[in-house]
C-alpha cells in the first residue's frame, strides 16, 4: 500500500494557516514572521514533506536543473567532463541529471525528449556515434530550451559548442612521432561518422604533408567500438602486413592501451619496434608499461566552460542569444611509449 504524499495543504490544515502562508514560509519569504517560518519548517519535517519540483518549476518557469547526455560514463574523459559541469552547476544553485546514450541514436532521441518534457532549463549533449540527423535537437531548441554541444558536435545545429582542438592536437602527436624518426605511422581511428574522428584524421594527414611523407591509406584502420579488444585485433592485422608500421597513433587512450597489450603478445618492443601514442591522457596512461605518450585533454575544465556557457544563455535577458564557440587546446604529454 503506497504512502500518502504530504502536501502544503496538509501542513496548512495542521497549523490552521493559509496554503499561501505555508508556501511563502517554505520559500523563505521575508514577509513571513520568523516564528511562523519555524513552525512551518518543523511541521514539514514532522510530516515528511518533500517539495514537488515539477510543480515549482511550472510556477517559477525555472527548474534549476541541467540535463547532461554523454555516450558513456565509464570513460574518464566523460566522467571528468560531468564533474566539471556539476562543479559549476552546483555552485550556481543548479542540479544535474545525467544520462548515457550508450552510442545509440534512438536512445539519444528518447533521452533528449524526456529531458525536455521534464522541463530542464538546458541540455548539454555529446552526440552518439550513430547520430547523423539532428531534428531531435533542433526540435527542443525551437521549444526554447537551450542546448550546448560539447566534444562531439555537428555543424548543422546553431548552438553553443565547446570542443578540443583535435586537428592541431593530432597533428602535434604525429609530428612528435616523426621527430622521433618514425616514417611509417599507422592510425587507429574511431568511426568517421563523428566529426572529432575526421578532425583527428585530417591532422594526421596534415603532419604527413608538412613533412613530405607518403600517406599510406592501408595504415589507417577505422574502429567502430572503443574497446581494448578492437584495438588488439587492429594491431594484429597491422603486424601481419609485409611492410609493417614503425609507429601507431590511436584516436583514444583506450585503443592505445589495447595496442600496448597486443604488442606484448606479439613480442613487439615498444618503442623500439613500434612507438605508440594515444589521445586523452586518462590516469591509467601513467601506470601502464611502458607509460603512454598521449595528448592531454582538460576534460574537467571543458565541463566547467560548457556549464558556464549554457547558464549564461539560460539567464540571458536577450531573446536572440548568440551562440558561443570555444576551442580548448590539448597538451602533449611525452612518456616511455614513444
UniProtKB/TrEMBL annotation:
<dbReference type="Pfam" id="PF13377">
    <property type="entry name" value="Peripla_BP_3"/>
</dbReference>
<dbReference type="InterPro" id="IPR010982">
    <property type="entry name" value="Lambda_DNA-bd_dom_sf"/>
</dbReference>
<dbReference type="InterPro" id="IPR000843">
    <property type="entry name" value="HTH_LacI"/>
</dbReference>
<dbReference type="InterPro" id="IPR046335">
    <property type="entry name" value="LacI/GalR-like_sensor"/>
</dbReference>
<keyword id="KW-0805">Transcription regulation</keyword>
<dbReference type="InterPro" id="IPR028082">
    <property type="entry name" value="Peripla_BP_I"/>
</dbReference>
<keyword id="KW-0804">Transcription</keyword>
<dbReference type="GO" id="GO:0003700">
    <property type="term" value="F:DNA-binding transcription factor activity"/>
</dbReference>
<dbReference type="GO" id="GO:0000976">
    <property type="term" value="F:transcription cis-regulatory region binding"/>
</dbReference>
<keyword id="KW-0238">DNA-binding</keyword>
<feature type="domain" description="HTH lacI-type">
    <location>
        <begin position="6"/>
        <end position="60"/>
    </location>
</feature>
<protein>
    <submittedName>
        <fullName>Transcriptional regulator, LacI family</fullName>
    </submittedName>
</protein>
<dbReference type="Pfam" id="PF00356">
    <property type="entry name" value="LacI"/>
</dbReference>
